[in-house]
Amino acid sequence: MMIEKEKTLKKNIKDYVMIVIGSIIMALSLVLFLLPNKITAGGVSGIATILYHTLSIPAGFTMLVCNIPLFLMGIHYFGKKFGMKTFVGIIASSFFTDLFDKGLGWGALTDNKLLATVYGGFVLGIGLGIIMRGRGTTGGSDIVARIINKFSHITLGWSFMIIDTGIIILTGIVFKDVELILFCLISLAISSKMVDILVEGVISEKSIMIISDSWYKIAQRIMKEIHRGITGLDSHGMYTNTARKTLYTVVSRRQVEQIRRIVREEDPNAFVVISNVAILQGEGFRSRTILAEE
After folding, report:
1. Cα separation, 37 vs 32, whole angstroms
2. Within 10 Å of residue 227's Cβ, how many Cβ atoms?
3. pLDDT score of 121
4. What span, in angstroms and rounded, lies between the C-alpha atoms of 224 and 226?
5. Could you tell me the fold of the domain covering 205-289?
6. Around Cβ 162, how many Cβ atoms within 10 Å?
7. pLDDT confidence of 290, banded at 50, 70, 90?
8. Exposed / middle / buried, residue 52 (Cβ in 10 Å: 0-12, 13-18, 19+)
9. Contact 149, 214 (CB under 8 A)
10. Domain edges within the chain
11. pLDDT digits (tens, 9 = 90+) for 87-143
C-alpha cells in the first residue's frame, strides 16, 4: 500500500511539474509572438488579446477572470475531472503571462506577422501538449466545449472548432483586419497539430483494443466516465487456453489518456493496442479520410 502511495505521489508531482513547464512555454508563445501581433489561436487567450489591445487590460488577468467561472462550471458539471490540476494550469498560465509581459517587460521577438503566426502557434502547441501530458488543462474553450458536448449532439471536435473559430472571427472584426483572421487560423492549425503530436499522434480519432481479465470493470468505467460506447468481442487466449472478452472502442485523442489511466488502475498487465483511424463512419463521429498523413 505504501509503495502504491509513493508511486501515486511521484506521478502527481511529475504531472504538476509538466503543467507548470507547459504553462511557462504557453506564456512565452503569447508574450514573445502572438499577443504583441494581435494573433490568437482562439480560446480565452483570444479574448485576452482583444482586451489587451483595446482596453489595455493585462492578458494574464483577463485569462484568470474568464477561467475561474468556467472552472467552477466544470467542477459543477463534471466533478473532480476539472480539479486541482486544471486550477494549477489556469493560475500558472495567467501568472507567467503577466510576469513575462508586465513584470519583466518582455516584448515581441518579431513584428513580422507570418513569423509570429508560425512560431507562436508552434510554441503554443508545445506548451499545451505538455500540459495535457500532465493530465491538466488551462480551462477556457476546453471546459466550454465539454459543456456543449454534454448538452447537445455536437462532438468535442466540432465544439472546439466552433468556439475557437468564433473568437478568431471576432478578433478580425474588432481590429478590422480580414488578413488577421487568416493568420489566426494558421496559428490555430499549427498549435492544434503540435498538441496532437505531443499527446497521442497526428490523427484525432483512435481505435483502442483492450485484452484483460478485468474487461467488465474496464468497460463499465469507460462507459460511465468517458461516455463512450465499447464493444466486447468473444476471444480465446491460445497460450492460456482461456475465454474472455476483447474490448474495442474508437475515441477522440483527448480521451485516450483517460482510458489508459482506467486500464492501468484496473489491470496494470492488460494488453492495449492504440491505432490511428484512417476512415471513420458512423454515429458519434464525422466521416473523414486521411491519405498518407496529409
Report:
1. 9
2. 10
3. 93
4. 6
5. Alpha-Beta Plaits (3.30.70)
6. 16
7. very low
8. buried
9. no
10. 2-199, 205-289
11. 899 999 999 999 999 889 888 999 999 999 999 999 998 998 898 888 788 877 878
Better-scored residue on pLDDT, 285 or 246: 246
Tell me the per-residue pLDDT of 204-226, one tens digit each, with 9 for 90 and over: 678 899 998 899 999 999 998 88
Residues 6+ apart with CB under 8 A from 65: none
3-state secondary structure the chain: CHHHHHHHHHHHHHHHHHHHHHHHHHHHHHHHHHHHHCCCCCHHHHHHHHHHHHCCCCHHHHHHHHHHHHHHHHHHHHHHHHCHHHHHHHHHHHHHHHHHHHHCCCCCCCCCHHHHHHHHHHHHHHHHHHHHHCCCCCCCHHHHHHHHHHHCCCCHHHHHHHHHHHHHHHHHHHCCCHHHHHHHHHHHHHHHHHHHHHHCCCCCEEEEEEECCCHHHHHHHHHHHHCCCCEEEEEEECCCCEEEEEEEEEEEHHHHHHHHHHHHHHCCCCEEEEEECCEECCCCCCCEECCCCC
Q: Can you tell me the distance from the alpha carbon of 93 to that of 23, in angstroms, rounded to the nearest whole number?
A: 5
| Cell 489511466 found at | 261
